[in-house]
Amino acid sequence: MVLRTHGLVVGHDRSPACGPVDVALERGDVLSVVGDNGAGKSTLLRTVLGLLEPVGGRVEVLGRAVDEREAWFRAAVASVLDTEAFIPGVTAREHLLLVARGHATPGPEGVVDDLLDRFGILDAGSRYPASLSSGQRRRLLLAAAFARPRELMVLDEPEQRLDGDMRRALATMIRDEQARGTAVLLATHDPVLLREVGAPVLVVGDRCVVVHAQDAADRLAGDRG
Ligand SMILES: Nc1ncnc2c1ncn2[C@@H]1O[C@H](COP(=O)(O)OP(=O)(O)OP(=O)(O)O)[C@@H](O)[C@H]1O
Prior knowledge:
- The chain has helices spanning about 40-50, 70-75, 90-100, 110-120, 135-145, 165-180, 190-195, 215-225; strands at about 5-10, 15-20, 25, 30-35, 55-60, 65, 75-80, 150-155, 185, 200-205, 210.
- The chain is an alpha/beta fold.
- It has a domain at about 5-85 and about 150-225: Rossmann fold (3-Layer(aba) Sandwich).
- The model has no long low-confidence stretch (mean pLDDT about 95).
- Adenosine-5'-triphosphate binds near residues 37, 40, 41 and 42.
């Protein structure tokens, strides 16, 4: 089992935002997470990543208690949250190479060039992140998560600032992750991403329930329209 939560209640300052949630992801399982603004999606993902203490219950990754300071956890878990952290004075390509080499990714040069291409930022490779558009920086941040080994991928609203084509390409990449055996936890507001990923959807709110991707996508599309 890659990710398991047991009666997990998440929140801030011991005040619950959502839960209890019981999640069980095996290799190749994807679970999308939706909910209104403030429902607790990011709080849930941050708790799974060990960045927040659970208010109740517990989280296990690969059968062990989560500790984001430990090497095994860092080696197994790739995440993209809403924070950007780029090393100053390092180009986009160098940033990806540092990530790949830091995680001992085999053939780092080829992996990085392929990722720059797949994320449509080949031309941006020689530029500094600060000089890129916000969407290009988002693509770079996502590419970094794919530049390293991973057994669990945690993505918090990865669609932010991406155009339609890139969102669809990202859905394909998530399905490819599934095929290669990565477990993926994906919080999103995007009905297209939900539909194209096609995974079960955990709706967080007063009560947490799992629904079909199509139903969740229809509901999100309805909210927008
Ligand atoms: N740093 C924080 N300190 C205290 N409370 C917080 C903090 N961050 C978020 N919250 C609260 O926790 C609850 C859940 O917030 P969270 O960010 O997890 O929601 P979300 O579902 O990700 O929302 P959104 O769709 O807007 O991104 C909200 O009531 C929010 O106000």
